[in-house]
C-alpha cells in the first residue's frame, strides 16, 4: 500500500476557509514571491526538510477540488490502492488540454508563446538535450497545476532541473531573461518560468522511464465534472500513447492529421 502526505497551501483567511481537512494546511505568507506560485513552498517542504523516502509528497492549491472534483478522501483511497513501489501519482484536470496537444510543452507554447524555447534552453543548460518535435505526453504522464505526489527521489530529480529557474544565480543571463519574461495569466502576469516549471514533472516522467507512475484517470475526473464528450480526446491520446511506446512516426502523424480534422470542425482550440 502506498502512503502519501499532501499539504494544501493557503495565504489568507479566504483561502484558509477553502482547505480540505484531509490535507495538511501550509501557510504561505502573502509577501513571499507570490508570482512564483507554489514553487517557494516546494523549496521549503522538499529541499530543506527531512522526508520519509517511502512516502509520496505533494503540495497543492486550495483550488484542487474546484479543478478536479476530488476530495482528500478520494485521493487518499486511490493512493492507498497502489503498490508501495510507485514513485509518482498524478491527479490531472483539463483532459482536453492533456489530449488535444502533442505534449504539455506544446500546450504551454499555445497558451504562452516562448515557453517551448525557454524549456529547450533550460534543459540544454541542465545537460538534457530536448527535441520538442519528438516529445509527446499523454493522459497518464501529463501534469497540470502540479497536482502530483512523489517520493523524495523524484523531488531531488525535479530540483536538479527546477533550480535553473528557482536559483537566481544558476541560469545563464540569456536563460534568466527567458524565465523572467512576464506573460499574461488571469488578470495579471507571471514569470515565464512558472509555466516552464509546471512541465518539469512531465518531462522527467516521459524522458526517464525508471519512474513508476500511476494516474487517477483524467477521463474520470472530466466525467465527474460533467464532461461526457470525450471520444475525440481518447482517440488522440491513444495515438500519442502508441507513439511513445513504439517511436513509430506514423502514430504521431495520424495524431496531427486527426487533430487538424477536428480543428476544421472547430472542436479543437
Describe, in plain words, how this protein is organized in 3D.
The chain is an alpha/beta fold. It has helices at 13-16, 39-47, 64-68, 72-80, 95-100, 104-111, 115-125, 152-166, 173-180, 192-198, 200-207, 218-224, 231-246, 249-264; strands at residues 3-10, 24-27, 55-61, 88-90, 148-150, 182-185, 188-191, 213-215. The strands form three sheets. It has a three-stranded parallel beta sheet with strand order 2-1-3, sandwiched between helices. It has a three-stranded mixed beta sheet with strand order 5-4-8. Strands 6-7 form a two-stranded antiparallel sheet. α2 (39-47) packs across α8 and α13 packs antiparallel against α14.
Quick structural overview:
By secondary structure, the protein is an alpha/beta fold. The chain has helices spanning about 15, 40-45, 65-70, 70-80, 95-100, 105-110, 115-125, 150-165, 175-180, 190-200, 200-205, 220-225, 230-245, 250-265; strands spanning about 5-10, 25, 55-60, 90, 150, 180-185, 190, 215. α2 crosses α8, α7 crosses α10 (about 190-200) and α13 runs antiparallel to α14 (about 250-265).
List the helices and strands and how they pair.
Elements: E1 3-10, H1 13-16, E2 24-27, H2 39-47, E3 55-61, H3 64-68, H4 72-80, E4 88-90, H5 95-100, H6 104-111, H7 115-125, E5 148-150, H8 152-166, H9 173-180, E6 182-185, E7 188-191, H10 192-198, H11 200-207, E8 213-215, H12 218-224, H13 231-246, H14 249-264
Parallel strand pairs: 1-2, 1-3, 4-8
Antiparallel strand pairs: 4-5, 6-7
Amino acid at each position: 500500500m502506498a502512503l502519501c502526505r499532501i499539504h494544501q497551501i493557503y495565504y489568507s483567511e479566504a483561502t484558509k476557509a477553502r482547505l480540505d481537512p484531509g490535507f495538511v494546511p501550509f501557510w504561505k505568507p502573502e509577501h513571499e514571491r507570490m508570482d512564483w506560485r507554489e514553487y517557494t513552498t516546494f523549496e521549503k517542504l522538499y529541499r530543506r526538510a527531512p522526508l520519509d523516502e517511502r512516502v509520496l509528497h505533494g503540495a497543492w492549491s486550495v483550488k484542487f477540488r474546484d479543478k478536479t472534483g476530488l476530495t482528500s478522501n478520494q485521493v487518499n483511497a486511490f493512493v492507498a490502492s497502489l503498490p508501495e513501489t510507485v514513485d509518482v501519482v498524478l491527479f490531472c484536470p483539463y483532459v482536453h488540454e492533456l489530449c488535444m496537444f502533442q505534449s504539455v510543452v506544446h500546450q504551454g507554447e499555445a497558451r504562452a508563446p516562448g515557453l517551448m524555447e525557454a524549456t529547450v534552453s533550460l534543459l540544454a543548460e541542465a545537460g538534457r538535450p530536448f527535441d520538442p518535435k519528438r516529445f509527446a505526453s499523454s493522459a497518464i504522464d501529463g501534469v497540470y497545476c502540479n497536482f502530483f505526489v512523489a517520493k523524495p527521489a523524484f523531488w531531488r530529480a525535479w530540483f536538479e532541473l527546477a533550480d535553473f529557474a528557482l536559483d537566481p544565480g544558476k541560469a545563464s543571463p540569456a536563460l534568466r531573461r527567458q524565465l523572467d519574461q512576464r506573460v499574461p495569466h488571469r488578470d495579471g502576469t507571471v514569470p515565464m518560468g512558472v509555466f516552464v516549471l509546471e512541465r518539469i514533472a512531465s518531462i522527467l516522467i516521459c524522458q526517464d522511464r525508471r519512474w513508476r507512475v500511476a494516474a487517477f484517470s483524467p477521463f474520470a475526473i472530466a466525467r465527474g465534472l460533467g464532461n461526457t464528450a470525450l471520444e475525440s480526446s481518447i482517440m488522440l491520446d491513444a495515438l500519442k500513447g502508441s507513439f511513445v511506446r513504439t517511436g513509430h512516426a506514423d502514430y504521431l502523424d495520424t495524431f496531427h492529421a486527426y487533430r487538424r480534422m477536428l480543428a476544421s470542425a472547430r472542436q479543437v482550440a
